[in-house]
Amino acid sequence: MTEPYTLVGRQARPEDSEIRVGDALVGGKELAIIAGPCSVEDRDQVLQIARAVKQAGAKFLRGGAFKPRTSPYAFQGIKEDGLVLLREARAETGLKIVTEVRDVLTLEAVAAVADVIQIGARNMTNFGLLEAAGDLRTPILLKRGMSATIEELLMAAEYVASRGNLNIMLCERGIRTFERYTRNTLDLSAVPVVKKLSHLPILVDPSHGVGLWEHVPAMALAAIAAGADGLMVEVHHNPAEALSDGPQSLRPDRFAEMMLKVRALAGVLGRTLEAP
Amino acid sequence: MTEPYTLVGRQARPEDSEIRVGDALVGGKELAIIAGPCSVEDRDQVLQIARAVKQAGAKFLRGGAFKPRTSPYAFQGIKEDGLVLLREARAETGLKIVTEVRDVLTLEAVAAVADVIQIGARNMTNFGLLEAAGDLRTPILLKRGMSATIEELLMAAEYVASRGNLNIMLCERGIRTFERYTRNTLDLSAVPVVKKLSHLPILVDPSHGVGLWEHVPAMALAAIAAGADGLMVEVHHNPAEALSDGPQSLRPDRFAEMMLKVRALAGVLGRTLEAP
Amino acid sequence: MTEPYTLVGRQARPEDSEIRVGDALVGGKELAIIAGPCSVEDRDQVLQIARAVKQAGAKFLRGGAFKPRTSPYAFQGIKEDGLVLLREARAETGLKIVTEVRDVLTLEAVAAVADVIQIGARNMTNFGLLEAAGDLRTPILLKRGMSATIEELLMAAEYVASRGNLNIMLCERGIRTFERYTRNTLDLSAVPVVKKLSHLPILVDPSHGVGLWEHVPAMALAAIAAGADGLMVEVHHNPAEALSDGPQSLRPDRFAEMMLKVRALAGVLGRTLEAP
Amino acid sequence: MTEPYTLVGRQARPEDSEIRVGDALVGGKELAIIAGPCSVEDRDQVLQIARAVKQAGAKFLRGGAFKPRTSPYAFQGIKEDGLVLLREARAETGLKIVTEVRDVLTLEAVAAVADVIQIGARNMTNFGLLEAAGDLRTPILLKRGMSATIEELLMAAEYVASRGNLNIMLCERGIRTFERYTRNTLDLSAVPVVKKLSHLPILVDPSHGVGLWEHVPAMALAAIAAGADGLMVEVHHNPAEALSDGPQSLRPDRFAEMMLKVRALAGVLGRTLEAP
Hints:
The first copy, chain A, is of the alpha/beta class and 276 residues long.
């Protein structure tokens, strides 16, 4: 296929895109660190974690209010209440809010709060949602589908872009393979490949990528070394009681320790990570 | 996991479910054959193919009006015009219409025409769409996602069922693997496994499963022998000029020949396939 | 790649190859049924199972004497003693012996007894072993590797053929995918694809393909319907106490029941399966 | 499974193993860099590349004399002549020789020259070869099979170890997935996982991992950041005319440039890489 990526391809824009989110930029020299709980559970939880990740140097708070779950009977998030708490966390900490949209119906509510709207792996080929997100101008964090090729990820971004929203950051979060020790297989080669094919920034989510907190720091460092523009990391102050994804969530102290290493690494690689 | 399938599991209903579509039943002794073009292109095309597949014994006409495509620049179907032509084909031939819904926004239009609403592989985890389909009572044909486990397919069905619509037929259409000769790897073991775990009917789409028309008949026969309740097959009178999926579409004469073999096989397996 | 299969390709021999094994032929009209235990355990076991599978219509007895196992500490077979018992089972029942070679060092011992030498999935790219097998004239049953493409399977056969041994039967036994309910994903599309590309017979092993005995009959029928030249099935009179692969072994009565269905199917498909 | 790795597991040896290769150690603080051509082609080629990789800081020269290839008709290496040239390259440069054994029959010849014997991905379940390698005391570089789980890789190492040879270094080289842009999917999460489960060193081969030279440096850096004990990299002075693996081979100048970055990274990570 020659030049299939009309808008998100390198040929459309030879220099890297930098996505503005308030006073932050994603895709430039400064690494973007998004951290927080899988799900927003209650005020205490989200504020406690927000303060901790901010103190460690994160500029973005992640937290799911509407959760797409495999089972209709699993915890689906606290929904609108979660958005209220995220807004409160932003007001207190100044962190930018990254939160997932579950479907077209909840897009408006999410867009009213989010600084960055996350489209998750399960929705990467939900073309109606991609188009609706393309009609907004809010930055979109688009995660690679579990069995999506890199080409398909870029084509999904092209759907968003084709409606006029070029504020897109991509995110590698692991693909499905036969390996059973890890939850997914984090495909870090997607980082240099996307960098070659597209001008869009690409982040890495090592938490979903491996599914085991103890291996998250190693993969976070690897992601940065591979050239990623930032990280999305699950942090929980009490992983054992998290309502979702506890096994892959870092405790705040471990996250802070990891951030020190990321900062040291950034220096060697020509990237920066502001001290908190 | 013990008994996770509250509504679609065998424990909820030990006998096989038979889904009524007008005067036809899917999931009983009679095999359900769905055939037709990938996309509805024009009146001539759809009527010509509809007549041919009816004559060969199909009771259901497939044909996409709204096409979810990897690229936003690929042919996306002729949309509402396609629905009109499908209605016309039904009026003339009596075939039941199976057509895909692309997103929540087009669900109402599709539901107004379709006898069976198809939710395709790319939408299997579009939970908003699954729930909206669950609010209808129209039968749903739910295709397995490209990297969905059988458990996830059943959980997607559970989403539909949990909203009150138990009129669900599942469809195996191939999964993503490393093999490159075929388009996907048709996982026929999904047939007996679904039969064990669930009371819902399961069909097989050998056209997407292998992606090469010449191997479709062999895989169609294999699907029936594995216990499938029916087939979904792409047929086009002029595959070389089809606007989508030409390489995997059977010509009507080859489809008719295949149907003779399916009928012979059905007899041995305790199934039936009415002569046209 | 154009015509890469110099010796095993269709262009080398347009008609199907029939492999002679004593008074039996594999690859002709008559289906070849290979059945027996995963491992030869003791005289009683192998003779009891041999009689049962013969009575049900199998012409070939499978049984591992040298077992390649993932762990060096797992049961590795009873080795030379197993070969003695297989010889004895042949003397009593007249069944042809199919047994696996573990490595080059045991090839001579295996070749002295086997009517068909099995090269298992783990050895499909053991090129030294393929070449040594190519120097013999004993028929070779070559199983597809767990992650081998169909092209690589045919190239492995080409290794054997290039040394002069064209007595090769291929065997699909499931590939590795993300699906976890089944042990492997049985890729039945390999059957028509191999038939198109090569003149060699292809069998299917549904036991390893699904790994669960209750789904073996469905997949055996599907394999025959897809055009396979025969089956390789694990049968054990006491699966619960089998030293290996118990969960995927059929009891003799269930195997006999399956054979009745295979015979009925064969008739419809233009194949034969002699009554026992 | 509890503690399945009797000899190579962490419980057998809580501290990291350091494998001695002459005056070098693999698995300690110092990173081990193995570089060189895919295949030894001629004296000029191997000496020229050997000098270049030594100058850039590699301590080990890779080069295949016996090449396991998918097709029996592909270039299979220059065999014994290659071993002679590798010996000559060692004599001139002092580099340690890492070269692959193709099968049991060539083990003695390879062992007579190699400082480290490579067992490649295609032979990871060639148990006869693993055992024969276990009877030696030469260090073994054991590569992960294309579809091997991490557990199976460690079990293959256990085969070698169970015969008394604990001088084993593991190597991640990419697994088979559906992604088609890269040759394989480099599973860097294998690095921290192996580190947790085993005391053996683990290296990474980014050349086979991605199959495209331009992405090799990014993945090499990522591997080191993930905690790998070293790298195995294909370098060729004239990739366009290499007899094998040209597209994934770095030119010497690019390799040298990459090594500068690896050295800088090592410092931050508490590892060392001696200046050349």
